[in-house]
Fold each of these.
Amino acid sequence: MKDIKILGTGCPKCKQTTAAVEETVKKLGIEATIEKVEDIMEIMKYNVLSTPAVVVNGNIVFKGRVPTSSELEAILAN
Amino acid sequence: MFDWLQHFADWLIYAVFGIGAETHLGAALNFFVFDTLKILLLLFLIVFLMGIVNAYFPVERLRNYLSRNKLYGGEHLLAAVFGAVTPFCSCSSVPLFIGFVRGGIPLGVTFSFLITSPLVNEVALAMFLGMFGWKVTVIYAASGIVLGTVGGWVLGKLNLQRYLSDWVKQLWENAQRETDALEADAQTFAQRLPSIARGAWDIVKGVVLYVIIGIGIGAMHGFVPENFFTEYLGGGQWWTVPVAVIVAVPLYANAAGILPVIQVLVAKGVPLGTAIAFMMGTVGLSLPEATLLKKVMTMRLIAIFFGVVTAFIILSGYLFNLVF
């Protein structure tokens, strides 16, 4: 079970990232909770300056860009 | 460097379509094909290069460096240069602002970054390079950096902390120097290259329509009478620069769409400085950005911020007109 959070204030790039994460999770058939974090106070707790960022089980794996699907697969598969 | 592209455009229009080089239509179509391809190519290269620079120097590194070191004024320049090479995303401006505040970085230095980041824009750089050559491009980039450095310094002198939103003010008071924001990316550089290339491709895709429309308008050069605008805007009247900038600020536009229009204006007699000031007004200050900044600043601070930047853009417009 993976706990995935997408940090972003609701810009187009954040939406792209969310869509990409949802797609990869579906494709790999893994169990995961996907949560979008849009509250700036919550986002700042992760100590990132550039959004969108992707957090898996509490670790930041991507920040400041939209990850490609192959990058996401590599991260989410293990 | 672009000879092969010109050959391609010549071949396509004159040989494949069989439209004569001496006709208005042939010349306009040739210009259109050549310029569109050249600018899209330049754009891809510039965004790709910036992506690589950013992979090595993420903005977190700047923040950590500024939080640890005092540069006695040099930090404004550093922040502005960094802002110029960082592709601006309005969605990142708030987390970035907070991150800087928490690191105890002076407000003025943060403003230096925030002014330059949208002002020196990768799309505009590519289009300046493609349309006006490297000299104008360097002047545009350098003036954006100077504007950010000086503008941020002036804003820093105004003691604006009191106009931050209440919760940001608290952060400000509890700010700690020498703290770190997360710098490392989980990915190695080689792993990131495909996503940098794709990011560049996405930006090109996103503006291709504007470039085509804009250059399409530009291709009609021959159809607009020479010095059409000179009578109204080119006579060096003092009020043209401020009017151009003030009209530009609410007119938040894509740099890709506005630049070809500017090229036509300049070709038809509008002074280059007025045109560049107009462009800076459209891309540098935007209402969407103001709405986002409302989360961290009071309206009053946003108004001061925009006011100072507007004033400096107008000033640099006058300077440009003196230089050219």
Note: The mean pLDDT of chain B is 80.
Amino acid sequence: MSQRFKLLEICRRALSAFAVVTAVVPIYLLIKQAFSVELDSFAWPPRWIPHHLTLEHLHKVTSTGELRESLIRSAEVATVAACTATLLGTMLAYAMTRDLRARRWGLAALTASRLLPMIAVALPLATVLIRVGLYDTPSGLGLALVHAAIALPVAAILLLGAFAKIPLELEDAAFLDGASQLTILLRIYLPQLKQALAAAFVLSFLSSWDEFGFGLLLQPTNRTLPPLIYYYAVFGDVGAASALALVSTAPVLIVLVALRHILIRQPKPPAF
Amino acid sequence: MRRAGRFLRLSCLGLPLGFLAITLILPLLSGVILSFQADGFSLENYRFVLGDSLFRRSVYNTLILAAASLVVEFVWGLIFALLLSSRRRASFVTEVSVLMPLLIPEIVFLSVARYILLPRGYLNGALAAVGLPAVGWLDPRSALCLLSVALVDAWRVTPMVTLLLLDGLQGIPAELYEAALLDGAGSFAQSRYVTLPLLKPALYGALVLRGVDALRIFSTVLVLAGPEGAPVMSTYAYQLWGDAMEEHRAMAASVLLATMIGTLGAVVIAFRARTRASGGGALEGLSG
């Protein structure tokens, strides 16, 4: 028996080590490429340890017009998308909380919208956006609205779980005291949802910040960060691509590692 | 007063659903209509797409990729879920490491994977260091390209599968294991008769979610192999739209992909309704 325990323990250790290595290697390579000179990146055999360090790429990212603009644009698009998704998600979750029929409709719509393939929506959407003048605009408003629609299901389901935890008695008591539905929503529910609202906002923000496909198709010249990283990574500049990738990864990693408890125990929609 | 509350609830339902309809469903429907247009209403676009050998190859590639990626990510996802849920809690470092590929932005992960797999990349460099010949991991002419793409996709999404299965594992009450132990079940019997049946709903839900994602795979293929390297259905449509300027044909191809995924979804929902009617599986959470 003890020998089998030992074997299991070795397996556990090996697995942990494997996980750590596969997680650390990509991040290490990214950081290495972002700080090493161009010659190092093209060396053969590839160097695992940089010979010369430089801040040139990071400087380029913050000073070149195109790169800085896309950084700002990505932040704007993600902010608009996250605000919209959180607002609409709260409304939807509220409507679904106490009403069985609304819940059915809501869940059906959320499930359906999660099944759509990006390409089947993005191609005709480009045509629609051209017609209403929101295609490839410098502000990226059209893209922000699509990102909001993608993030809405996640936000709504997260908030639905939070709504479900608020006791019905609280609403009844407020109702007996003469509070209107709006007052109940704004002064009873919302204060208890602070954490869930913050989580919904952050997750929506990140999903927009990371989104690639719609960005590629709907903002071909006024690019957001992910498509720009794609162009740099595939068509040339290794150093700039890595520096750009690092800049876009750092905030994500910090936030997500801090929030990993929410991620691991992501609430599921209650049965309907 | 009552009526005011009703109005509030209705608009709270209507506004978000209307928003979803305008931004996602309406474009999809207009794409369906446009896909039937070629000098008036005709099936010409579909005839072209279905007759194109590149499209048939992309369907084949999509299915192979999905199958390979699903197998790998479920094996690893289950192993990692067991690792994270075992009685001795995994350390913070292990926890974060297991989740890491999911935490990095997709495009960043993929471009690093590309640097690793390029002909003069880190993997071939490591092979050369131990005296092995270089391998064309992303060579569009070899079947290896498809496998590389599948492995990278599996690498990236294994954490998601892990989380979904972990959730299922944590829902199994410990008393069941104690009872099984008292009945004389060994560790194999325990996993066969306790863990597996109770994990089924989570496995099944994860399989559907990931299956849909695997069928609509886009960025992994585009970044690693380029649209010509290993065409899948979505990159095929992208190529027709962007490079060939064949908008309506591209929409026909993407409608076919959406139909495929929609059929899968409908089958699952029908199946779920049946199992629930017969008092079978507890498959809630699928919609999440």
Note: Confidence is low (pLDDT under 50) at residues 279-288 of chain B.
